[in-house]
């Protein structure tokens, strides 16, 4: 039986040699997700317009709702820096908006343009930099990016692959990818609460992915929770990409009064 033991030992060594490391498995899951989202077409998505209904919540109670249109345009990536511009417009006639750029953020109304408080802008930048869809579009080639697999698990009856994504500044987000569709369905990260101390847990749920053109997929339902409570949800009626959005959409109108910064 010596030959049998030798055969078993050789098979074990072969299996060990071919086993994925946590980093290799994490990279494979990321590669599969990018392919599922549209591959090169997803990477070449220049801009996006999402239209639908947005809801905000306070202590699980509805505190605001609006017809919303979110315009997003990607710019040349800079490692660890916000590399997108976004305009969140509200109402059927877009009577109010919030503008986010790499240089600052403003609330736009008929009264004028009010710079957002530093804390709100910083939170927006941090959330964007840790958003898995933004990471897959803008940050995959950054130096120092690490994709570390936590192996597979079950999330609400769905088999998932769980991957920690960490950048060179030690920002980490844990992402759950569906094993069947390969798409990201949930992400979690913690951020220090500057006012109260301690840590806030931020969770985002992505659902109802649809083809939005050229094979690119995007979630039509996005929900955000903080410390176990729902704080925001958007149900998109339509998502369009590559609409050739112009610079003036992401610039302050010249005739709008500049108001004092929000506190």
Describe it.
The chain has 263 residues and is an alpha+beta fold. It has one domain: outer membrane lipoprotein receptor (LolB), chain A (Clam), CATH 2.50.20. Helices cover 22% and strands 45% of the residues. It contains five helices and 13 strands. The protein has a 13-stranded antiparallel beta sheet, with helices on one face.
Briefly characterize the structure.
This protein has helices at 2-18, 22-37, 40-43, 118-129, 132-139, and strands at 47-58, 61-74, 84-90, 96-100, 105-109, 112-115, 146-155, 158-166, 172-178, 184-192, 199-211, 217-226, 229-241.
SS-based class: alpha+beta
CATH superfamily: Lipoprotein localisation LolA/LolB/LppX
Number of DSSP helices?
5
Q: Class in CATH?
A: Mainly Beta
Helix content: 10-25%
Query: How are the strands of the largest sheet arranged?
Result: 6-5-4-3-2-1-13-12-11-10-9-8-7
CATH topology: outer membrane lipoprotein receptor (LolB), chain A
Second CATH tier, the architecture:
Clam
Profile the largest sheet.
13 strands, antiparallel
Rg over CA atoms, rounded to whole Å, is 21 Å
Give the low-pLDDT segments.
1-17
Separation of termini?
79 Å
Number of domains: 1
Estimate the mean pLDDT confidence: 90
Strand content: 35-45%
Shape: globular
- Count of DSSP E strands? 13
Order of helices and strands: HHHEEEEEEHHEEEEEEE
